[in-house]
Amino acid sequence: MLKAGVLGAGHLGKIHLKLLQQSERYELVGFYDPSIENAKKVSEEFGYHSFNSVEELIASVDVVDIVTPTLSHFECAKMAIDKGCHIFIEKPITNTVLEAEAIRTLASQKHIRGQVGHVERFNPAFTAVKEMIGTPMFIETHRLAEFNPRGTDVPVVLDLMIHDIDIILSVVQSPVKNVHASGVSVISETPDIANARIEFENGCVANLTASRISMKNMRKSRFFQRDAYISVDFLDKKSEVVRMKDAPESPDEFAMILQNAEGVRKQIYFDNPEVTPNNAILDELESFADAIENDTTPVVSLEQGTNALRVAQQIIDCFDKEN
After folding, report:
1. 283 pLDDT more than 70
2. How many domains does the chain have?
3. pLDDT digits (tens, 9 = 90+) for 116-142
4. 128 and 220 in one domain?
5. What domain range is 130 assigned to?
6. Contact at 8 Å (CB) between 140 and 204?
7. Contact, 148 vs 212, CB < 8 A?
């Protein structure tokens, strides 16, 4: 079993602690939280060992699970890598692209495995259809959340939209060509609502909308490709695939047939793939154990986490040009 320790015992950190303790792939050694009061409370309530410093925790584990505020990701990751520990970092990977590149380089030099917590990659609604997503040419995403003060220290792009950026980059096998975006600050010092258009060199276009002051929660993505439309509801864990195939000469009387201006007839087929319930955070943590033990590339590598942050930063830069 891999010895694991968690840096940060906030809302998400406590979830990671619980799941690492449950996992058969890890031995949870303990955690460190800079708040003495919070560390004492978490330790007394759940029985986890509380370390007195980051250095003390790192010296006791094989894997460091970084669930701290984004501003501290770089320093925590650097310290862990320097001591030979593998790192799991919650998204976004770091606060800046330069920091992310530095972490990537250092991890490579030290032969350290690293994974970024883009948990939607493990959402069962997405995993049920990801192999069916071939070459999408238009993608539309909506990620809306009711207001929550937690996370408003960063733009909504880094808080919410980056999930969809990562998903899109994982299915579009083409470099980004152009990014256009606009954002509006309503209640926070940084944009609470944002819309972005990402154009890829292969002609694919992705239109992303994110809001953290919505009246309802929504996490939906739609992928359009030749003869197919794929819908993923990340919130309700549902997927739908609509395919078009050449219509038979004698279709069933209930068949849905479309005919274009050239007289080509297509039959529409609807499919709702089986979505198997899972705990996505546990799955991502255990997939990282697989990568470490088998010496393979993690599902969400440091490089992929850096690429998602780079596009997110391009979007944020568009906001600065507006002002």
Report:
1. yes
2. 2
3. 999 999 999 999 999 999 999 999 999
4. yes
5. 122-277+311-322
6. no
7. yes
